Amino acid sequence: MNEMDEEQQIPEGMEVPETLDEQAAPVAGKGSNKAVFAVIIVLMLAFQAVSSYFIVKTLFFSKPPAQTTVKKKTKKQPIGEIYQLPGLIVNPTGSRGTKVLLVDLGLETHNSKVMVELQAREPQIRDNLITFLSAQRVDVLTDITMRERIRKRILEIVNTRLTEGVVDNAYFIRYVFQ
Length: 178
Description:
Blueprint: H1 3-6, H2 20-23, H3 30-60, E1 81-90, E2 101-109, H4 112-120, H5 122-134, H6 138-142, H7 147-161, E3 169-177
Antiparallel strand pairs: 1-2, 2-3
């Protein structure tokens, strides 16, 4: 080897690392970056824990909202006039003519003009109701929980035909499914 390799000139005041490990030593400030990163992670975990607590508390342990009453707190109206619509007979969808539904309806109104109009429009109303009922499946017509939906839909069908007022309620006078 030559002399230059062995004796390298090193300026005064500069330290020369003896091994490569000292050269790979962390630069000043990297340790503080790890600490900041650790603090951020801890804060994020704490935020998640607190928010999870409040979400679970409100979803599972809070009191259910107060039920609002649908009924009006006014005077009950007296029973109105009832127009009877007897003898709606239909074969439901999918029954292939083996099942029959017989329905007699009572349509209540508090307007005498509606009674006259119901009588005049009875063929149209019957046709619309027969079309609606025959389009229903057997399981819908036999399910007692679906009766209220059927009743509401009957009211909508009847009221779309009327111009003088509305029918207030629909009652099943007879509902026979065979």
